[in-house]
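To close the chapter, one final illustration. This time we ask the reader to focus less on the individual chains and more on the assembly as a whole: which components sit near each other, and how the overall shape emerges from the parts.
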Amino acid sequence: MKNRLLGVFSKAFNIANVDETISQRNCEKWDSLNHINLVVEIENEFDISIEPEEFDEMKDFRSIEKIVLSKLNN
Amino acid sequence: MEYFIFRNSTIENIFGNNNVSYSGYNEIQSFDAGANVYVWLYLLPIANDKASLLLEIESYFERIQLVSKQIPSNSLFLLFTLQEIQGLKYQHNDFSVTKAISNFNNNITNFALEHDNVKAIDISEFTRNYNNIQLIDWKYYFTSKMILNPRLASPFASWFYKQLEKIQFIRKKCLVLDLDNTIWGGILAEDGIEGIKIGGDYPGNAFLNFQQNLIELTKIGVILAVCSKNNEQDVLDAWEKNPYIILKKEHFAAYRINWNNKAENIKELALELNIGLESMVFVDDNPAERELVKQLLPAVEVPDFPAHPYLLPPFFSSLLQNYFSVYALTEEDKRKTEQYRANQQRVNEKQNFSDFSSYLKSLETEINIEKASKFNIQRIAQLTQKTNQFNLTSKRYNEVDIQKLIADNDFVYCISAKDKFGDSGISGALIIKKTTATEVEIDSLLLSCRILGKNIEFAFVNKMLGELKKQGITKVSASYLPSPKNMQVSDFYEKLGFQLLEENEALKSYILDLQNTDLKETEHIKIQIQ
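The assembled structure is written out below.
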């Protein structure tokens, strides 16, 4: 699951190396447009729906992982 | 390629930020003036208030017209049609929004027909592959103002670039054709109406096939025109009398059959047909003519001509693919040839080519003048027999006649010419008879038409006159004997500065006072005398 999620980051941001430390603060590519790309890619990859209320919480890898896991477990 | 997109919703996710910039939402005031391609991609806005939606849609076309006036007219301007993706109908018999959309679409498609750089793209070609639940995702509309579902971003982008490929292939309008050795084999002026190769066996059948294909081109709205160095009457006769020529006068919207330089003729054709040079393609078997047009009219497309008639079918197919392939065929396209013919106006104004001399320079022409000898007498005799057009007196000689002239101490010279495209071989002759110790008469002067149009004729004659002057000759007499085919040289001696003594239907006679004549050297041509 972690690797799948890292793959999604790399696809959405079009960058090769992504690790679990990635966050809006340390990643230049993570702008508002790519944020939407990321959400779309996550929804596609895991076949889940992320709610607008959650968009703002998605600030780094950990927080996103948490959201995805909670949806997958439901 | 730099794109600038006028938009009313978030579409950055579709096109990204590399080489693409975007207007503000609904904004047309500021835009990047340096883009190659401008795109109008407005998606039907989401609105509850129908009256304001109608006003909004109505305003789009006006905005497009404003934008069109401000962007560079040589930049492509692509307009997306509008389509109703989501709409609430409170009244089933209310078609006002549908009508407004279809008005807009009509307006922009007409606008595209009127402006060469404007193209309309039918967005329904994309959206028809999806239903309206797939097309919009309200979550992204409300959070990010995306009207098109971001999941469709990448299929939309690839569909768009495919459309762009088809469109940028901007179709040419007019194919300008040479005649001799281009749409038939052989040279009309030399081989005659019956002698040119068209139909029947090879190579005539290959040229016939080419003509058939060209006729098909006229049916998809391509205008054909002729630009040929010939006597107009000869060609008109051939069209009328040779039954194997199927590409006739009526297939051509305009023609220039004369001895002017072809770049000038093509410019006139463009004026007459009222089309831009950039929408013309010129086909000629002669590389020197192609080079002239390429240099003087860089906007005109000039493809290489195949080396063998049997290669005409693939040549035609490349013409079709590269210049005339159609992404949309309208009724108007089909009527175009007729229209252009109807609108035909002879434009008599001659254009001067300020840089004709730089063309001549680029040819690197060299001419070589030789005294008649046993190695070239046969060819000289043959030239006097065959040369019709550039032939001042049309006197015909056989080998024995030429030998006699040499024995009588007359001057018999021949000329060969070469340029960067190749060597013409012996292609002209000059016969000068001595009348007294200090006076001569030009008996014959002829040049094959394949070396004409490069000022070789002037260089040749002036050089020879210079030689005569050195030998103490003071007076040169000359005459022009009109024939059905040599009108083009009726004023050749005038151009050289000869004085006209007498003129009647059968003869123009001239004299040149060599002692008091400054002989000009012709620029850009190297001359050798052997």
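The first strand of chain B starts at residue 3 and ends at 7. Chain B touches chain A at residues 12-13, 17, 139-140, 142-144, 146, 150-151, 153 (CB under 8 Å). With these observations in hand, you are ready for the problems at the end of the chapter.
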